[in-house]
Amino acid sequence: MMSKYVTGAVAALALGALATGGAYAQGTVKIGLIVSMTGQQASTGKQIKAAVDLYMKQHGDTVAGKKIEVILRDSGSVPDHTKRLAQELIVNDHVNIIAGFEITPAALVAAPLATKAKVVELVMAAGTSIITEKSPYIVRTSFTVPQSAVIIADWAAQNKIKKVVTIVSDYAPGYDAEKSFTERFKSHGGQILQAIRVPLANPDFAPFLQRAADAKPDAIYIFVPSGQGGTFMKQFTERGLDKAGIKLIGTGDVTDDDLLPGMGDAAIGTVTAHMYSADHQSAANKAYVAAFEKANHFRPNFMSVGGYDGMHLIYAALKKTKGKADAESLIAAMKGMKWESPRGPIEIDPQTRDIIQNIYIRKVEKKDGQLYNVEFETFKAVKDPVKAAKK
Ligand code: PHB
After folding, report:
1. Rounded Cα distance, 353 and 123, in Å
2. Closest-CA residue to 79 (of 222, 174, 201)
3. 340: which strand partners?
4. Strands 97-100 and 28-35
5. What domains does the chain contain, in order, with CATH numbers?
6. For the segment 179-205, what is each residue's pLDDT rounded down to a tens digit?
7. pLDDT of 281-304, one tens digit each?
8. pTM given for the model
9. Burial (CB count within 10 angstroms: exposed 0-12, middle 13-18, buried 19+), residue 17
10. Could you tell me the distance, in angstroms and rounded to a whole number, from the CA of residue 105 to the centre of ligand 1?
11. Ligand 1, from 34, 253, 373: best to mutate by most atoms within 8 Å of Cβ?
C-alpha cells in the first residue's frame, strides 16, 4: 500500500500512470480543495471554504447522478505544501478536480501536475494573467489583476490625476498590477514618479509610504493581495498621507470586504476598480450576502465569489457532461459557460479558459455606519487585457 506521505518521485511516477484514468469511485466526483486555512493568506481560505460550503448547502451534494465530495487541505500559505497536497490528492485520493489556490505561486506549482495527471485545476483565487496558460486543464473563476489595473488607470487619467507613485507587492501579481497600470496610465500622458515594490511576507509599508509622500504625487496606486489591506491602510493613516491630499487608488484588493469593516474612516474616499463588492446592487448578491452572513457572521469578499462560482461551474459542467468527470469532458463543457454570479454576469472565455466579467469603479463610503465599496461605474464583459493583447 502506498504510504500517506508519498515522496515527490513516487508521486510523479504515479501521476504518469494515472494519466489515462479518472476517479476510481465511479459514482463520486472528488474535488481536492487546497487553500490556506492558516498563515498569511488564511482569510482567503476562510472565505473560499465558507462559500463552497454555502453553495453545497444550497444546491445539495448530488449532480447528474454523481455524489460530490470535497476534500479540504490546508496549504498553510506555503506553495510547496500545495504541490505536495495536490500530488497526494491526485495519487492517493484520485480526485477529478483540484481547486482553490490562494496565491499565484500555489496555482503555478500545481499546473504541471494537472497536465500530467489530466485533472482539472480550478483557480478560485490567484490573479496573475499567465496562470491559465500553464496547463490546458486550468480554468479560472477569480479574476486577473490586469482586468482591474487598466480600468483604474483610465479612471485616474480622466480624473485629474497626473503624477502617481505605484506601490505593489514584490511577486507575480504585483508585477502584473504595476505593468498594466503603468502602460495604460502613460498612454494617457500620465507620469509615474516612483515604482515601489514591497516584500510579500510580513510587509512594513511605513518607509515606502514616506518615500512615496516625499515625491508629492497626486495619487498613490496600490496593489496588495487580499489580507494585507488593513496593515497598509493603518500605516497610510499613521503617516498622515490621508490628510496630505494624496489620493489613494488601486485594484480593489486593498479595500477587501473581509477587512474593510475594521479599516476606519481613513479608508473613506479610496477609489478602486474590481469585480466584486459586498454592496453590489443586485437581487442575486443581496441573497448571497444575506445567506453568507447568516452562516458565517462575517462579510463575503471577492475571494468568496471565486469559490462560490467555482462550485457553480463544476455543477453546471457535470450537468452538461451527464456526469462524465474526465478533464477533457469537463474543460470542454466549462468553455463558454455563462451565468449570473453575485458579482454580476460572468463567462468562461472559450479561447483562454479565463473569466470574462464586469469591472466596477467603486469608492469607499459609509452606509448605515459601515464601510463599503460603493460601485458607481460599470465596464461590461472585460477580458484579461494581457492575453487579449497577445492575439
Ligand atoms: C495572487 O497571488 O495571485 C493574488 C492573491 C491575492 C490577491 C490578488 C492576487 O488579492
Report:
1. 11
2. 201
3. 345
4. parallel
5. 2-143+281-353 (3.40.50.2300), 146-274+358-390 (3.40.50.2300)
6. 999 999 999 999 999 999 999 999 999
7. 999 999 999 999 999 999 999 999
8. 0.94
9. exposed
10. 10
11. 253
How many angstroms is it from 104 CA to the middle of ligand 1?
A: 6
- Give CA–CA dist 321/194, Å, rounded: 51
Judge if the beta carbon of residue 253 lies within 6 A of ligand 1. yes
Say whether 4 sits in a helix, a strand or coil: coil
CB of 227 closer than 8 Å to CB of 103 = no
How far, in Å, from the CA of 126 to the mean position of ligand 1? 5
Our mutation pick for probing the ligand 1 site, out of 43, 109, 145, 303, counting the most ligand atoms within 8 A of Cβ, is 145
Q: Supply 384's cell numbers.
A: 484579461
Measured CA to CA, the distance from residue 251 to residue 275 in angstroms comes to 10
What is the whole-number distance in angstroms between the Cα of residue 125 and the centre of ligand 1?
7
Rounded to the nearest whole angstrom, what is the distance from the C-alpha of residue 263 to the centroid of ligand 1? 20
Whether residue 219 contacts residue 190, with contact meaning beta carbons closer than 8 Å, is answered with: no
Let me know: does 198 contact 254? Beta carbons within 8 Å: no
**Ligand 1 within 6 A of CB of 249:** no
